[in-house]
Amino acid sequence: MNFDIVIAGGGFAGAYCARELGRALGRTEGCRRVALIAERNVFVFQPMLAEVVGSTLAPMDVVHPLRQFCRNVNVLQGVIQRVDWAKKELVLDGGRFTRSHPVGFTHLVLALGNVTDLTAVPGLAEYGWPLKNVADALRLRAALINRLEEANLVDEPAVRARLLTFVVVGGGYTGVETAGQIYDFVREVHRFYTNLRDTQPRVVLVHGKGELLAEIGADLGGYARRVLVKRGLEVRLNTHVCEVTAERVHFAEGGTVEAHTVISTIGNAPNPVVLDLCRQLGLDAPKGRVPVAPTMRVPGHDTLWVAGDCAAVPWEDRGEMKLAPPTSQFALREGTQLGQNLARVLRGAEPRGFRYRYQGQLASIGKHVAVAEIWGGHFRGFFAWWLWRTIYLAKLPGTLRKLRVMTDWTFELFFARDLGLVFPPHEDVLRSVHLEKGEELFRRGDPARAFACVRRGSLTFTAPGEPQLLLAAGSVLDEDLLDPAGMWRGDVTADGSGADLVIFRGRAFDLLRDGLRLVRR
Q1: Which of 145, 170, 286, 312 has a Cα at 20 to 30 A from 268?
Q2: Cβ 48 vs Cβ 174: under 8 Å
Q3: If DSSP codes are grouped into helix, strand and coil, which group holds residue 272?
Q4: Where along the chain do its domains lie?
């Protein structure tokens, strides 16, 4: 596949860029010339994820199919493995049966957001719950209900207290809204648990700075903190988590909190695909944000464009030049402007610089209370909460979803929140695989997303310039077969009468990889 424009990333910047291009080019020209690549085939309205955790909204209320949202463009679902700038090609992992699929481009738009990296705090990756997508929100909601069910089952006061303690790390928008939603949810439904009526849930919000919601200002941040504390939440400012275990959260300043549930809204890291492309081009990208011109074109590379969280876009704010903050509000406007610019370039016109008048920010803190800064004015309490819901409802894509959200919010005013426990798909960390003779397990150049152990039969490992290696029963396919970039050095195929293997994926893969590194160190 080859396209004039390939947009990498299906978040706010990428989706709105594709939407604008589809409108400008029309069905015939757009589908032929423009491709949008996303890991999932839905656009996630992330500002409302906390409401999914709190059972105020259903998960389908906050997603919109990309093929309906970005009409007249070719939507491709897959994980970008790497970008080869010299070949003007990127390689997609589309799933179990469509590995290493090449897609060519003339113009490339990078709109890839940050990735979650919880490894900076020991134990946080193992015991922390991230909140980046709908699957994370569903898993967290299921964990909250399971903790209530377990606490209702046990008699020991110390165990019950740990089960009913929830620690939220990070006092930004996501952290504050998530803490408020969790507190509202557990306090509201806890009356249905007969054995918990004498034990109150505990929610602890931990923030490393001196005030919550630093982006919105100390005045509104302080108001949010006072409201949360008055309602019963614990807020710990200037406090840093230094270690997490199965039962405790340890703080660098001293002290611990006993809890089995830790939610992390911190731990963002630059996207490795963006960093790798910057290395290829010799670009310096501080904190993973690529410097661009006001048109969002990378200087010196006329066919490379960047928008969203991975872009350092110049922005004029009241006569002062700044970098546009990495928020959904700006990503949406950047994506729209970039789509218009690309349409102009395809027609031989000059692109225009990014201009946007800052409108403000909003944050819900639960129980019909919010804080808002709009056009320089500060609002708080119920009126700010009404503004929050009205503005986000207007921004939510799709008339059907607007109606669904209005219905859910209306029911939430009069009825108890849903306690039904619907598990998201479990991560299959160990999987058995059978290969017939000649079937491939991995190909040379594929990224290592799993290791394998041969149970029966044998495999052959064939790499350029190396003798062919026979992997008999008991052999492990691990880091010894990788190149320095973490790719398989050769092809692995079944030998003889075939092979049976155990595949280590997800957390099992991470633990095995880290264990091997420690042993070999």
Answers
A1: 145
A2: no
A3: helix
A4: 2-39+78-114+270-357, 124-266+361-414, 430-520
